[in-house]
């Protein structure tokens, strides 16, 4: 199969992200990978400007951890759309904790509760004791859901 352009690859990622059927999503991601996505990853990331495009690229990064790009994740944390900021908080799990700590702090201060919950859950999924100081601060969050997830996450990180 010939190598696709970065624009074609970004469209495939968007189609995969929009697919409700997991089989369609998997097939579309496989097509993107066979079409040269790993080699064109930086070009695809550079083209992702809309919320839909950024969400699609973040989904791909989570499925293929070698594609994690901290600069892109950081840019997504500044998005207007809470869904993109929440996806960026999830993608932080792909980056070593010491490199992602400042980004986690930003997510834990986000005005949208879904972003804060996602950051706390992702920290808990890491199961790293070094995440405890970040999670301790979340115990004082004004939202009960964030506090509850922070308790869960702290138990997992001990």
What does this structure look like?
It is a single chain. 73% of the residues lie in helices and 0% in strands. The chain has 158 residues and is mainly alpha-helical. The chain folds into 2 domains: 1-67; 75-158, Leucine-rich Repeat Variant, CATH 1.25.10.10. The longest helix has 14 residues, at 113-126. The N and C termini lie far apart (48 Å). The model has no long low-confidence stretch (mean pLDDT 89).
Order of helices and strands: HHHHHHHHHH
Query: Radius of gyration, Cα only, in angstroms?
Result: 16 Å
Arithmetic mean pLDDT: 89
Helical residues, percent: over 70%
Second CATH tier, the architecture of the largest domain: Alpha Horseshoe
Number of helices: 10
What is this structure, in a nutshell?
This protein has 158 residues and is mainly alpha-helical. It has helices at 6-18, 22-34, 37-47, 51-63, 70-77, 82-91, 97-108, 113-126, 132-138, 144-157. The mean pLDDT is 89.
List the helices and strands and how they pair.
Blueprint: H1 6-18, H2 22-34, H3 37-47, H4 51-63, H5 70-77, H6 82-91, H7 97-108, H8 113-126, H9 132-138, H10 144-157
Helix pairs in contact: 1-2, 1-3, 1-4, 4-6, 5-6, 6-8, 8-10, 9-10
């Amino acid at each position: 199969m010939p190598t696709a352009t970065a624009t074609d690859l970004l469209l495939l990622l968007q189609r995969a992200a929009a697919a409700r059927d997991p089989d369609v999503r998997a097939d579309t991601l496989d097509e993107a990978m066979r079409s040269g996505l790993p080699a064109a990853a930086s070009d695809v990331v550079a083209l992702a400007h809309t919320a839909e495009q950024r969400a699609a690229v973040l989904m791909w990064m989570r499925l293929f951890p070698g594609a994690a790009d901290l600069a892109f994740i950081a840019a997504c944390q500044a998005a207007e759309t809470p869904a993109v900021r929440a996806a960026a908080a999830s993608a932080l799990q792909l980056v070593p904790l010491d490199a992602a700590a400042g980004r986690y702090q930003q997510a834990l201060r986000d005005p949208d509760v879904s972003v804060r919950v996602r950051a706390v859950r992702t920290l808990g999924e890491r199961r790293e004791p070094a995440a405890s100081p970040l999670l301790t601060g979340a115990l004082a969050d004004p939202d009960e859901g964030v506090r509850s997830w922070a308790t869960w996450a702290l138990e997992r990180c001990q």
